[in-house]
Amino acid sequence: MTFSMAKLEDGPDILDIYRHYVLNTAITFEYEPPSLMEMENRMKNIQAKYPYVVAREGNRIAGYAYASDFRTRAAYQWSPESTIYLHPSCCGKGIGKLLYQKLFDVLAWQGYYNVFAGIALPNEASVALHQKLGFREVGVYEKIGYKFGKWHSTQWFQLVLKPHAENPASPRIPDWANFTI
Description:
It contains 4 helices and 7 strands, in the order βααβββαβαββ. By secondary structure, it is α+β, with helices and mostly antiparallel strands.
């Protein structure tokens, strides 16, 4: 298993993984998979500020994780949201834990203090992963999303990445193309 920052040429494999979750689960609240161009634009927008990490088994992408804005007001700048998706054949193998640890290490290095995760319910595997990594539940939005003929709640979690500093510096934004994990 190797880990690296995502590149645009990873877009088709990332989209294939995501497409499965859009079409077959309520884990994402999107109804239709994005186009490849849209997925690549999302990747570019995320990487303008945050890490986008992929896990590879040989030449195949086994999963990906990234951070994004949790809220957009300036006071929230130290607290992104995390997202993770694994190829369905790679679930339950510990890849998610390793992938998330890489992401969180980079976020802490950048200067982020917290990371939040919203999990569409039911999703016992994702809840267990987040709890195993030290996230604590901070709330539930009841029946917030409607997909596949039923209402779904989202459970929210918070992980403190490092001790909170007084007068924190703004998070650093590296050149991801030349960043090694």
